[in-house]
Amino acid sequence: MQRTLSTDVLVVGGGTAGFGAAYAAASRGARVRLIEGTSKIGGVMAFCPGMPWGGGFPIGRSIGGVFDTLTSRLCTAQPPLAEIRPSTLENFGAEVIYDHEAAVFAMFQMLEDAGVEVHLGTFAGAPVMDGARIAAVECYDRTGPLTIVAAMVIDCSGDGDISAKAGVPFALGDGHGNMMGVTLSFSMLNARWDAVFAHDDPYFTQEAERGIAEGRLHPDLAKLYLMRGFHRDTVFCNSVHIRGVDGTDPQQVARATQEGRRRCHQLARFLIDSVPGFEHARMSELGPTIGVRETRKLEAMHRILARDLAAAMKFADGIVCCDNPIDDVMRSDSAMTHEAIVAEGSYYTIPFRALVPRAVENLLFAGRLVCADPAAFASVRGMPQCMAMGEAVGIAATLAQAKGLAVQALDPAEIVAALAARGVRGIGGHALADHAPALGA
Ligand SMILES: Cc1cc2nc3c(=O)[nH]c(=O)nc-3n(C[C@H](O)[C@H](O)[C@H](O)COP(=O)(O)OP(=O)(O)OC[C@H]3O[C@@H](n4cnc5c(N)ncnc54)[C@H](O)[C@@H]3O)c2cc1C
Q1: Disulfide check for 204: which of 222, 224, 356, 397 has CB 3.0–4.6 Å away?
Q2: So what's the pLDDT on residue 428?
Q3: pLDDT bucket at 336, cuts 50 / 70 / 90
Q4: Are strands 117-119 and 32-35 parallel, antiparallel or unpaired?
Q5: Minimal CA–CA distance to 100: which of 5, 6, 231?
Q6: Tens digits of per-residue pLDDT, 277-302?
Q7: Mutate to test the pocket of ligand 1, among 44, 161, 369, 385 (most ligand atoms within 8 A of CB)
Q8: Counting Cβ atoms within 10 Å, is residue 209 exposed (0-12), middle (13-18) or buried (19+)?
Q9: Closest-CA residue to 94 (of 49, 66, 53, 48)
Q10: Cβ neighbours of residue 254 closer than 8 Å, sequence gap 6 or more
């Protein structure tokens, strides 16, 4: 049976960007449907349970907005369900470490409270075009086809399938098809932090070298990135990267997930047998699938360039601040690097126009499919920034619908003002330092 539903705003993808978009649009009174293909919201955050929200505190100040609302909600819970800690990696600022299930629960609750209709296990297949507009999106769930007629569509699917099918040009990975490595994460429970973290090296380079030399670890595990989880005696292992995987190909994803499991089990065994502090630990929270960093980057009215970010550009249509380094994880044959992109104490903003396609009039996008060159992308892709990009397009969608405007004709100043009114900091001519308290102040 063919079913048809309608909505003001259709958000495709329930990752951190989709969460921000749906929450913002619904909290401005729009009827919002959020379509998520898996059984859980969170996207990469749910595929890599416990991964810190990094980048929310450029120059030690919160970016504000929906990221701040969520973080405060978790940090002030009794007992607290999140904590702000300095990153152990070079050139990263503070990050939020949280209880994964509590965070997913809080995000869903915020969506429910805002009135978002959340569809899980529902896959957006293809847009139905009406000239330069998307009239509807053909979706599927277990009961069969479902057509959603929407005034505005927001693509937060990470991979941009709907936008690509709507004719938005894109580049895959670095433009030559090289995409960052994918990762399968897990945690170790019952580890002794004092022994595990007795030394300063977050990558456990010496142990990794030994494991590889003895043939007990895969050669791509030269850097074991181990960090304290939210719960005491839990260690989060964001270490097992697999190269050369196209995250838009389901069969490659399935194969990489199984290969990742093999390497994760091997690493857990190695930790238990050979690294002090893990003697009585056990593996937990192995990701249900690999986390995909990079696939399509959609073409937009503006392409974010690394040279502009390096110059600490504050765009007139800047929607969120960021000072994350170039966090490049094994594109092609390269290694994992975290080179600073801006001088210490400085930051840039992400422009709204990088989320607006050139031609389709009722489509916006947000998150890791943002229009950026490869180095810029490696900096702008943190989860707090994805939430903020979502928040910006959620607002923009409601404005476009209310005014009957194509998204290309929106006045970015109005979006920036609406974001600032919601507590997004350091935009619209305000300096972040003047506008937000320093952490711990
Ligand atoms: C391994 C790894 C480690 C990382 N480490 C960090 C870190 O430490 N800190 C940090 O802040 N950031 C980190 N990042 C970056 C960050 O996690 C991502 O950039 C961010 O989560 C992307 O969010 P998103 O919402 O744009 O996309 P995604 O999280 O990919 O969400 C997209 C969602 O859309 C859904 N979807 C896709 N297609 C469809 C469809 N057709 N129909 C319905 N649903 C669909 C997917 O199921 C998914 O839930 C990391 C990324 C990875 C992969």
Answers
A1: 224
A2: 94
A3: low
A4: parallel
A5: 231
A6: 999 999 999 999 999 999 999 999 99
A7: 44
A8: middle
A9: 53
A10: none
The confidence band for 209, taking pLDDT boundaries of 50, 70 and 90, is very high
What is the percent of the chain where pLDDT is above 90? 86
Instruction: Please give the C-alpha separations between residue 57 and each of 63, 75, 95, 389, in angstroms, as whole numbers.
Output: 6, 15, 7, 15
Q: Which residue has the tokens 């990079």?
A: 294
Q: Check pLDDT > 90 for residue 103.
A: yes
Q: In the predicted model, what is the mean pLDDT of residues 200-211?
A: 92
Ligand 1 centre from 277 Cα, in Å? Answer: 31
Distance (Å) from CA 16 to ligand 1 centroid: 7
Sheet with strand 53-54: strands edge to edge: 53-54, 94-98, 82-86
Distance CA 355, CA 376 (A): 14
Q: 93 in ligand 1 pocket by Cβ < 6 Å?
A: no
Instruction: State whether the beta carbon of 292 lies less than 6 angstroms from ligand 1.
Output: yes
Residue 13 CB–ligand 1 contact under 6 Å: yes
Nearest 5°: the CA angle 42, 296, 287 is: 35
Cβ burial of 226 (10 Å; 0-12, 13-18, 19+) is buried
Instruction: List strands edge to edge, sheet with 282-284.
Output: 226-228, 235-242, 182-189, 282-284
Mutate to test the pocket of ligand 1, among 34, 157, 264, 289 (most ligand atoms within 8 A of CB): 157
3-state SS, residue 104: helix
Mean pLDDT over 262-276 rounds to: 97
At a CB cut-off of 8 Å and minimum separation 6, what does 95 contact?
Answer: 52, 53, 54, 55, 56, 57, 84, 85, 86, 87
The burial of 161, by beta-carbon neighbours within 10 Å (0-12 exposed, 13-18 middle, 19 or more buried), is given as: buried
Selection from 2, 23, 43, 28 nearest residue 136 by Cα: 2
Taking only the tens place, the pLDDT of each residue in 382-421 is 999 999 999 999 999 999 999 999 999 999 999 999 999 9
Do 438 and 60 form a contact (C-beta atoms < 8 A)? yes
* Maximum Cα–Cα distance across the chain: 65
- Which residue of 33, 48, 51, 320 sits with most ligand 1 atoms within 8 Å of its CB, as the best mutation to test the pocket? 51
Q: What angle do CA 249, 350, 59 make, to 5 degrees?
A: 115
Residue 8, phi-psi category: left (phi > 0), alpha (psi -120 to 50), beta (remainder): alpha
